[in-house]
Amino acid sequence: MTRQRSTQTMKPATAAKKLGVHLDATPDEFRAGVVSRDELDALQADPPEWLRELRRNGPHPRQVVADRLGVSISGLARAEITEPLTTAQIAALKEEQPEWLRRERNTRAEAQRAEARLRAQRSGRRPDDPVGG
């Protein structure tokens, strides 16, 4: 006797996070129910127009905003950026280069260098050695 596998489902908020979009900007039918793993896979493989539009123009969730600006989520919080931003708003910030953005990019770069040094120490390599070298 074989048991039928149950379908894995997730809340719309989880699916939106996995898709890299802001939940409140998704269509009502997406937010209304649950999303199965198969539905999520289908959305990732062949995104509908609404998903392509959200990924292209936003509004974007914090993680996407942080990545596009080259800062951490904490850096956004320190700059008091709590709302989702559109692609145009992100581009304007990049062009404007406010002091907080320069400072947070430097902070993130320092953190990444420190992390690379620690990884190199743990693996027995020098930090300037090529990976796998």
Shape: globular
Strand order of the largest sheet: 1-2
Largest sheet: 2 strands, antiparallel
Q: Assign a percent range to the helix content.
A: 55-70%
Task: Outline the low-pLDDT stretches.
Answer: none
- Mean pLDDT comes to 89
Helical segment tally?
8
Q: Could you explain the architecture of this structure?
A:
A two-stranded antiparallel sheet has the order 1-2. By secondary structure, the protein is mainly α. 16% of the residues are buried. The mean pLDDT is 89. It contains eight helices and two strands. It has helices at 12-19, 28-32, 37-45, 49-57, 62-69, 73-78, 87-96, 99-123; strands at residues 9-10, 35-36.
Label this structure with key terms.
mainly alpha, globular, 133 residues, two-stranded antiparallel ribbon
Sum this structure up briefly:
With 133 residues, the protein is mainly alpha-helical.
Present the secondary structure layout.
Elements: E1 9-10, H1 12-19, H2 28-32, E2 35-36, H3 37-45, H4 49-57, H5 62-69, H6 73-78, H7 87-96, H8 99-123
